[in-house]
Structure prediction request, 371 residues.
Amino acid sequence: MTTPSPEEFIAAGLYDPDTDAATGRLELLGWLADQGFGIPEMQAGMAMDALLNLAGDRALVPEPRLTRAEALHRTGLDGETLDAYKTALGLEPIQGAPDGEVGYTEGIIELLGMMAELRAFFSDSEVIALSRVIASSVARIAEAAVSTFLTDVESGYVSEGRSELELGMTSFEAARLIDGMGHRLDPLLRRHVLQAVERTRVTTVSEVERFEYRYAVGFVDLVGFTSLSGNLSARELSEFIADFDARSHEIVAEAGARVVKLIGDEVMFVAADPSAVCQAGSALIDEFANDGDDVLPRGGMAVGNVVLRGGDYYGPVVNLASRLAGEALPGELLVTDELAHSALACEFEPAGCRVVKGFADPIEVHSLMPR
Prediction:
C-alpha cells in the first residue's frame, strides 16, 4: 500500500501544517498507513477523537464484527436467550459494528456456545447470573488496565510533550500486551476456583443445602475521608484510593483473611477463622491510624451464617458488622459477643449494648484490645 502524500492528508482534513507540524501528526499518519489504515478509517478515527489509539483499538479486537443474525445462526440460540446473554456479558456497540448492533466476533460467539453448554449443569437463570459475575469481573480488570495506562503512561507522555507518533505507538504496544493474556490467566483462574472450593468445604453449614456458610465478616472505614476528598485534586484522590486499596489487600492477606471489596473508603473482608478477621481489623486500624488526624479508621466485625452469592456475602451478619463499624469511635473495633468468644487469639473488653439500626434487640458488643 502506497503511503498517501502530505497533500492527500491535508485534503482529507487529517493534517494542517500550520498547527500540526510540530506535533508528530504527519509521522503518525504515515505510520498508520504502514499499519494498513486507509484515509477513510483515519477520518473516522479522528471524528471519534481516537486517531492516536486507532492501531491499539484494532489490536484489542481485530476480528470482523458480525451481525445478530449471524450470531443466532452460529450459536443455535433463540433470540431471547441470545439477547439475555448479551446483556449479562455487558456487550455494547463497538467501532465497526453493524448499525444498531453490538458487533459479535468469532471469539464472543465461541463464548456464547460455551455458555449454552453450561445449561447441561445449571438452570438458565444461573447461567445468566454467573455470566454477569464473570463480565463484571472482567470489566473491572479492563477498567483498571485502561485507567492505569492513562494515569501512569499517557498523562506523562502528554505532559512531557511527546509526539503523536510516540503516543500512537505506545498505545498500540500496550494493547498488544493483551495477546495471550487469557491463556496466561488460566492457571490463576484454576487456582482461585480450587481455593474457593476448599473454603466452602470448611465453611459449609448444611450437609444437604449449599446456601449458607459460616464466616467472620469485618468492615473498616475511614472517618473524615469525605471531607478530605473534597479538598483533593483528581490526581491526589486517585493516588489516595490506590494506596488505600494496596495497603488494605496486603494487610488483610497477611492476617489470613481475604478482601471481598472496597466501597469507597471502606474495606470489607472475611475469613473462616474469627481470629484472622480480628487480627486483620486490628492491623488495618494500626496502619491507617498513623496517617494523621484528618482521617481515622474504625471498624465492626461479626460472625455467623452468611449467604454466598456472586462472589459477595449477604445476610444479617454482614449487615450487623457494617452497622457496628458505623457505631465505633475513631480507632475502635466493635465486635459481637459471639465473635469475641470465638476469636481465641485475641483479647476484648466489654463495650456495653448498642441499639443498631435494622435489629430489634440491643446488640451486646466488645471492643477489640490493641495488639
In short: The beta strands are 212-223, 258-263, 266-271, 296-309, 312-314, 333-336, 348-354, 363-368. Residues 124-159 form the longest helix (36 residues). The chain has a mean pLDDT of 91. The two ends are 70 Å apart (CA to CA).
